[in-house]
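User: Reviewer 2 asked us to show a designed sequence for the structure in our supplementary figure. I'm pasting the C-alpha coordinates here. Could you produce the per-position amino acids so we can include them in the response letter?
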Protein backbone atom coordinates (compact mmCIF):
# COMPACT_ATOMS: atom_id res chain seq x y z
CA UNK A 1 0.00 0.00 0.00
CA UNK A 2 2.89 2.34 0.71
CA UNK A 3 4.33 1.60 -2.71
CA UNK A 4 0.94 2.17 -4.35
CA UNK A 5 0.62 5.49 -2.51
CA UNK A 6 4.03 6.53 -3.81
CA UNK A 7 3.09 5.52 -7.35
CA UNK A 8 -0.17 7.48 -7.14
CA UNK A 9 1.81 10.48 -5.89
CA UNK A 10 4.02 10.28 -8.98
CA UNK A 11 0.93 10.05 -11.18
CA UNK A 12 -0.53 13.12 -9.43
CA UNK A 13 2.61 15.05 -10.37
CA UNK A 14 2.28 13.84 -13.97
CA UNK A 15 -1.34 14.98 -14.15
CA UNK A 16 -0.45 18.38 -12.68
CA UNK A 17 2.40 18.83 -15.16
CA UNK A 18 0.40 17.66 -18.17
CA UNK A 19 -2.58 19.87 -17.33
CA UNK A 20 -0.31 22.89 -16.83
CA UNK A 21 1.25 22.37 -20.27
CA UNK A 22 -2.16 21.84 -21.85
CA UNK A 23 -3.67 24.95 -20.24
CA UNK A 24 -0.72 27.08 -21.32
CA UNK A 25 -0.85 25.78 -24.89
CA UNK A 26 -4.63 26.26 -25.18
CA UNK A 27 -4.40 29.77 -23.73
CA UNK A 28 -1.66 30.58 -26.24
CA UNK A 29 -4.00 29.45 -29.02
CA UNK A 30 -6.68 31.94 -28.03
CA UNK A 31 -4.11 34.72 -27.54
CA UNK A 32 -3.06 34.25 -31.16
CA UNK A 33 -6.67 34.61 -32.24
CA UNK A 34 -7.09 37.77 -30.17
CA UNK A 35 -3.93 39.12 -31.79
CA UNK A 36 -5.43 38.68 -35.26
CA UNK A 37 -8.59 40.57 -34.25
CA UNK A 38 -6.58 43.37 -32.63
CA UNK A 39 -4.46 43.71 -35.76
CA UNK A 40 -7.63 44.08 -37.85
CA UNK A 41 -8.93 46.65 -35.35
CA UNK A 42 -5.66 48.57 -35.59
CA UNK A 43 -5.99 48.69 -39.37
CA UNK A 44 -9.56 49.99 -39.01
CA UNK A 45 -8.40 52.73 -36.63
CA UNK A 46 -5.69 53.79 -39.03
CA UNK A 47 -8.27 54.10 -41.76
CA UNK A 48 -10.47 56.17 -39.45
CA UNK A 49 -7.55 58.44 -38.62
CA UNK A 50 -6.85 59.05 -42.30
CA UNK A 51 -10.49 60.05 -42.88
CA UNK A 52 -10.54 62.36 -39.86
CA UNK A 53 -7.26 64.02 -40.88
CA UNK A 54 -8.71 64.66 -44.35
CA UNK A 55 -11.81 66.23 -42.79
CA UNK A 56 -9.59 68.39 -40.60
CA UNK A 57 -7.62 69.64 -43.58
CA UNK A 58 -10.91 70.59 -45.24
CA UNK A 59 -11.88 72.51 -42.11
CA UNK A 60 -14.87 70.31 -41.35
CA UNK A 61 -13.74 69.30 -37.84
CA UNK A 62 -11.27 70.47 -35.22
CA UNK A 63 -8.16 68.73 -33.86
CA UNK A 64 -10.08 67.08 -30.99
CA UNK A 65 -11.37 64.32 -33.24
CA UNK A 66 -7.84 63.65 -34.53
CA UNK A 67 -6.46 63.39 -31.00
CA UNK A 68 -9.24 60.99 -30.00
CA UNK A 69 -8.47 58.69 -32.94
CA UNK A 70 -4.76 58.80 -32.17
CA UNK A 71 -5.51 57.92 -28.55
CA UNK A 72 -7.67 54.97 -29.63
CA UNK A 73 -4.94 53.78 -31.98
CA UNK A 74 -2.32 54.05 -29.24
CA UNK A 75 -4.44 51.99 -26.82
CA UNK A 76 -4.91 49.22 -29.37
CA UNK A 77 -1.17 49.23 -30.13
CA UNK A 78 -0.47 48.86 -26.40
CA UNK A 79 -2.89 45.93 -26.19
CA UNK A 80 -1.11 44.26 -29.10
CA UNK A 81 2.30 44.76 -27.48
CA UNK A 82 1.04 43.44 -24.13
CA UNK A 83 -0.52 40.40 -25.82
CA UNK A 84 2.70 39.63 -27.68
CA UNK A 85 4.59 39.78 -24.39
CA UNK A 86 2.03 37.43 -22.83
CA UNK A 87 2.44 34.98 -25.70
CA UNK A 88 6.23 35.04 -25.29
CA UNK A 89 5.79 34.30 -21.58
CA UNK A 90 3.55 31.33 -22.31
CA UNK A 91 6.02 29.98 -24.85
CA UNK A 92 8.73 30.22 -22.21
CA UNK A 93 6.47 28.48 -19.68
CA UNK A 94 5.92 25.60 -22.11
CA UNK A 95 9.69 25.23 -22.48
CA UNK A 96 10.18 25.22 -18.71
CA UNK A 97 7.35 22.75 -18.07
CA UNK A 98 8.60 20.51 -20.88
CA UNK A 99 12.19 20.59 -19.63
CA UNK A 100 13.58 22.44 -22.66
CA UNK A 101 16.03 25.29 -22.90
CA UNK A 102 14.62 28.79 -23.63
CA UNK A 103 16.09 28.58 -27.15
CA UNK A 104 13.47 25.89 -27.86
CA UNK A 105 10.92 28.72 -28.09
CA UNK A 106 12.04 29.44 -31.65
CA UNK A 107 10.93 25.97 -32.78
CA UNK A 108 7.41 26.23 -31.33
CA UNK A 109 4.63 26.61 -33.86
CA UNK A 110 1.49 28.63 -33.24
CA UNK A 111 -1.37 26.35 -32.19
CA UNK A 112 -4.49 25.97 -34.30
CA UNK A 113 -7.18 24.43 -32.12
CA UNK A 114 -10.68 23.99 -33.50
CA UNK A 115 -13.62 25.45 -31.58
CA UNK A 116 -15.53 22.23 -32.17
CA UNK A 117 -13.19 20.33 -29.84
CA UNK A 118 -15.27 19.20 -26.87
CA UNK A 119 -14.10 17.23 -23.87
CA UNK A 120 -15.69 13.75 -23.74
CA UNK A 121 -17.25 13.90 -20.27
CA UNK A 122 -19.94 11.52 -19.02
CA UNK A 123 -23.51 12.84 -18.91
CA UNK A 124 -23.76 11.97 -15.21
CA UNK A 125 -20.71 12.44 -13.00
CA UNK A 126 -20.91 10.27 -9.87
CA UNK A 127 -18.85 10.44 -6.71
CA UNK A 128 -17.08 7.15 -7.40
CA UNK A 129 -15.37 8.76 -10.40
CA UNK A 130 -13.13 10.48 -7.86
CA UNK A 131 -11.46 7.10 -7.41
CA UNK A 132 -9.64 7.95 -10.65
CA UNK A 133 -8.08 11.00 -8.98
CA UNK A 134 -4.47 10.22 -7.97
CA UNK A 135 -4.64 12.58 -4.99
CA UNK A 136 -7.52 10.54 -3.57
CA UNK A 137 -5.63 7.32 -4.32
CA UNK A 138 -2.61 8.63 -2.39
CA UNK A 139 -4.76 9.31 0.66
CA UNK A 140 -6.51 5.94 0.34
CA UNK A 141 -3.34 3.85 0.15
CA UNK A 142 -1.71 5.89 2.90
CA UNK A 143 -4.66 5.07 5.19
CA UNK A 144 -4.51 1.41 4.24
CA UNK A 145 -0.79 1.26 4.96
CA UNK A 146 -1.39 2.86 8.37
CA UNK A 147 -4.08 0.27 9.16
CA UNK A 148 -1.57 -2.53 8.56
CA UNK A 149 0.91 -0.70 10.80
CA UNK A 150 -1.62 -0.99 13.63
CA UNK A 151 -1.77 -4.76 13.12
CA UNK A 152 2.00 -4.87 13.29
CA UNK A 153 2.00 -2.88 16.53
CA UNK A 154 -0.58 -5.22 18.01
CA UNK A 155 1.55 -8.24 17.10
CA UNK A 156 4.43 -6.78 19.10
CA UNK A 157 2.44 -7.42 22.28
CA UNK A 158 2.87 -11.16 21.84
CA UNK A 159 6.08 -12.74 23.24
CA UNK A 160 8.57 -13.47 20.52
CA UNK A 161 11.69 -15.52 21.15
CA UNK A 162 14.42 -15.87 18.57
CA UNK A 163 15.77 -19.31 19.35
CA UNK A 164 18.65 -18.89 16.92
CA UNK A 165 19.67 -15.79 18.89
CA UNK A 166 20.13 -17.90 22.03
CA UNK A 167 23.14 -19.55 20.48
CA UNK A 168 25.27 -16.60 21.62
CA UNK A 169 24.62 -17.20 25.32
CA UNK A 170 27.61 -18.62 27.26
CA UNK A 171 25.33 -20.11 29.92
CA UNK A 172 21.57 -19.95 30.08
CA UNK A 173 19.12 -21.00 32.75
CA UNK A 174 15.61 -21.52 31.39
CA UNK A 175 14.23 -20.77 34.85
CA UNK A 176 15.43 -17.17 34.38
CA UNK A 177 13.98 -16.74 30.88
CA UNK A 178 12.21 -13.47 31.80
CA UNK A 179 15.07 -12.06 33.85
CA UNK A 180 16.78 -9.20 31.95
CA UNK A 181 20.14 -10.01 33.61
CA UNK A 182 20.05 -13.61 32.50
CA UNK A 183 21.20 -13.04 28.94
CA UNK A 184 24.17 -11.52 27.19
CA UNK A 185 23.87 -12.39 23.47
CA UNK A 186 26.95 -12.20 21.28
CA UNK A 187 25.05 -10.61 18.38
CA UNK A 188 21.59 -9.07 18.14
CA UNK A 189 18.66 -9.38 20.51
CA UNK A 190 17.52 -12.87 21.42
CA UNK A 191 14.35 -11.99 23.38
CA UNK A 192 11.50 -9.70 22.39
CA UNK A 193 9.00 -9.80 25.25
CA UNK A 194 6.32 -7.19 25.90
CA UNK A 195 6.71 -7.70 29.63
CA UNK A 196 10.08 -5.95 29.37
CA UNK A 197 8.95 -2.79 27.54
CA UNK A 198 5.15 -2.79 27.73
CA UNK A 199 4.90 0.97 28.10
CA UNK A 200 6.95 1.64 25.00
CA UNK A 201 4.97 -0.85 22.91
CA UNK A 202 1.69 0.61 24.11
CA UNK A 203 2.88 4.12 23.18
CA UNK A 204 3.89 2.88 19.73
CA UNK A 205 0.44 1.36 19.27
CA UNK A 206 -1.29 4.57 20.30
CA UNK A 207 0.90 6.54 17.89
CA UNK A 208 0.00 4.14 15.09
CA UNK A 209 -3.71 4.49 15.91
CA UNK A 210 -3.36 8.28 15.87
CA UNK A 211 -1.52 8.17 12.54
CA UNK A 212 -4.24 5.95 11.09
CA UNK A 213 -7.02 8.23 12.31
CA UNK A 214 -5.16 11.19 10.85
CA UNK A 215 -4.73 9.44 7.50
CA UNK A 216 -8.44 8.53 7.44
CA UNK A 217 -9.26 12.18 8.08
CA UNK A 218 -6.92 13.20 5.24
CA UNK A 219 -8.64 10.69 2.95
CA UNK A 220 -12.08 12.01 3.81
CA UNK A 221 -10.86 15.58 3.26
CA UNK A 222 -9.38 14.58 -0.12
CA UNK A 223 -12.70 13.11 -1.21
CA UNK A 224 -14.67 16.14 0.04
CA UNK A 225 -12.24 18.54 -1.61
CA UNK A 226 -12.34 16.60 -4.88
CA UNK A 227 -16.14 16.45 -4.90
CA UNK A 228 -16.43 20.16 -4.11
CA UNK A 229 -13.95 21.03 -6.87
CA UNK A 230 -15.88 18.99 -9.44
CA UNK A 231 -19.21 20.56 -8.44
CA UNK A 232 -17.76 24.08 -8.64
CA UNK A 233 -16.28 23.40 -12.07
CA UNK A 234 -19.57 21.94 -13.32
CA UNK A 235 -21.38 25.07 -12.15
CA UNK A 236 -18.77 27.30 -13.80
CA UNK A 237 -19.07 25.31 -17.01
CA UNK A 238 -22.85 25.80 -17.03
CA UNK A 239 -22.54 29.52 -16.30
CA UNK A 240 -19.88 30.13 -18.93
CA UNK A 241 -21.99 28.31 -21.53
CA UNK A 242 -24.96 30.56 -20.72
CA UNK A 243 -22.70 33.60 -20.96
CA UNK A 244 -21.38 32.44 -24.33
CA UNK A 245 -24.94 32.15 -25.66
CA UNK A 246 -25.67 35.73 -24.59
CA UNK A 247 -22.43 36.89 -26.16
CA UNK A 248 -23.29 35.14 -29.43
CA UNK A 249 -26.60 37.01 -29.46
CA UNK A 250 -24.81 40.31 -28.85
CA UNK A 251 -22.24 39.57 -31.55
CA UNK A 252 -25.04 38.74 -34.00
CA UNK A 253 -26.64 42.15 -33.29
CA UNK A 254 -23.30 43.95 -33.73
CA UNK A 255 -22.74 42.26 -37.08
CA UNK A 256 -26.28 43.21 -38.13
CA UNK A 257 -25.56 46.86 -37.30
CA UNK A 258 -22.31 46.70 -39.26
CA UNK A 259 -24.20 45.36 -42.30
CA UNK A 260 -26.77 48.15 -42.03
CA UNK A 261 -24.11 50.87 -41.93
CA UNK A 262 -22.33 49.20 -44.86
CA UNK A 263 -25.52 49.31 -46.94
CA UNK A 264 -25.95 53.00 -46.09
CA UNK A 265 -22.36 53.59 -47.17
CA UNK A 266 -22.88 51.83 -50.49
CA UNK A 267 -26.09 53.79 -51.09
CA UNK A 268 -24.32 57.08 -50.40
CA UNK A 269 -26.45 57.87 -47.33
CA UNK A 270 -23.45 58.24 -45.00
CA UNK A 271 -19.67 58.40 -45.03
CA UNK A 272 -17.39 55.55 -44.06
CA UNK A 273 -16.83 56.52 -40.41
CA UNK A 274 -20.10 54.99 -39.04
CA UNK A 275 -19.29 51.72 -40.80
CA UNK A 276 -15.74 51.65 -39.44
CA UNK A 277 -17.02 52.43 -35.94
CA UNK A 278 -19.52 49.55 -36.22
CA UNK A 279 -16.68 47.26 -37.30
CA UNK A 280 -14.72 48.25 -34.18
CA UNK A 281 -17.66 47.19 -32.02
CA UNK A 282 -17.76 43.85 -33.83
CA UNK A 283 -14.04 43.37 -33.18
CA UNK A 284 -14.50 44.05 -29.46
CA UNK A 285 -17.36 41.55 -29.39
CA UNK A 286 -15.20 38.95 -31.11
CA UNK A 287 -12.42 39.43 -28.55
CA UNK A 288 -14.94 38.95 -25.72
CA UNK A 289 -16.26 35.80 -27.41
CA UNK A 290 -12.71 34.44 -27.78
CA UNK A 291 -12.05 35.11 -24.08
CA UNK A 292 -15.20 33.20 -23.14
CA UNK A 293 -14.20 30.27 -25.34
CA UNK A 294 -10.78 30.27 -23.67
CA UNK A 295 -12.37 30.25 -20.22
CA UNK A 296 -14.62 27.35 -21.22
CA UNK A 297 -11.66 25.33 -22.54
CA UNK A 298 -9.62 25.96 -19.37
CA UNK A 299 -12.58 24.92 -17.18
CA UNK A 300 -12.86 21.68 -19.16
CA UNK A 301 -9.15 20.99 -18.64
CA UNK A 302 -9.52 21.66 -14.91
CA UNK A 303 -12.52 19.31 -14.81
CA UNK A 304 -10.52 16.55 -16.49
CA UNK A 305 -7.76 17.13 -13.94
CA UNK A 306 -10.26 17.04 -11.05
CA UNK A 307 -11.52 13.67 -12.32
CA UNK A 308 -8.04 12.17 -12.42
CA UNK A 309 -6.76 13.21 -15.84
CA UNK A 310 -6.76 9.64 -17.14
CA UNK A 311 -5.18 8.07 -14.04
CA UNK A 312 -6.00 4.37 -13.56
CA UNK A 313 -5.77 2.80 -10.12
CA UNK A 314 -3.80 -0.33 -10.98
CA UNK A 315 -3.72 -1.36 -7.33
CA UNK A 316 -7.50 -1.48 -7.22
CA UNK A 317 -7.60 -3.46 -10.48
CA UNK A 318 -5.13 -5.97 -9.08
CA UNK A 319 -7.26 -6.30 -5.97
CA UNK A 320 -10.33 -7.09 -8.06
CA UNK A 321 -8.37 -9.69 -10.01
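Assistant: Here is a per-position design you can include in the supplement:
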Amino acid sequence: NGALAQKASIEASKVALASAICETYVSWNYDERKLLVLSAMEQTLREELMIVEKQYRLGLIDAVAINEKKSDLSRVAQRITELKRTIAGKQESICVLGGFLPSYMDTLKSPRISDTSNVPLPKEILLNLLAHCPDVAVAKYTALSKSHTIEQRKAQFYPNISLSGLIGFTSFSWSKLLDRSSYSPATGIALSLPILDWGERNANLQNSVSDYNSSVYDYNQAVIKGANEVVVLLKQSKLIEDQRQRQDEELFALNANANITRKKLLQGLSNKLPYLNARKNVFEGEITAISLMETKALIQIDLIKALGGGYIDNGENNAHE
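For the response letter, you might also mention the following. The chain has six helices and two strands. The chain has a mean pLDDT of 81.
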